[in-house]
Amino acid sequence: MPIEIYNILKDMVDTIEIKFSYETGIIIQPNYEIIVQDGAMKDINCIYLDKVAEKLSEDTASIYKISFKSMVMALDNGISIEDIIDYFKEACKNEMPENVLMSLKEWNEKSKKIKIRKVTIVETDDKYLLEELKSYKDIKKDISMELPYVFEINSKDANKIKRNIEKKNHFCIIE
Length: 175
Hints:
Blueprint: H1 2-24, E1 26-28, E2 33-36, H2 42-52, E3 54-57, E4 62-65, H3 68-76, H4 81-91, H5 98-110, E5 115-116, H6 127-135, H7 137-140, H8 158-167, E6 173-174
Parallel strand pairs: 5-6
Antiparallel strand pairs: 1-2, 2-4, 3-4
């Protein structure tokens, strides 16, 4: 008799675990769509996904899609792509498709390549004079970073330039 009770209880626990898994997870598909099924965690997942993905439909299950454009939106909302990867790994019911994970990792790397920031610079049109200035100990100690790959823009145009860079499918961060 005790083994029968054990088996009944085990079946009940398995059923509860399956139901809980169903209620809490999202499903990420290889076509970059994310399915959020009806359940206890649906609202929480949808609130998060509204910040990092494009909503395609909403019904019993909500469907979102991640893309370059949605990653730009996430970065603009202060959410790093690393945080998105961590969230997906935690919330995903299924194994995250390899192509999606690879794209997210690639976008993460690319998201750090272009920055628009305000800087104070020492400028001269004489490269030898510049090298001389940089060689002085009392100046060298205060150089925070040398910037070989830069161009100057008007600070009032920073947002416009950011959007134009993103139209060319490059991530850009304003610091």
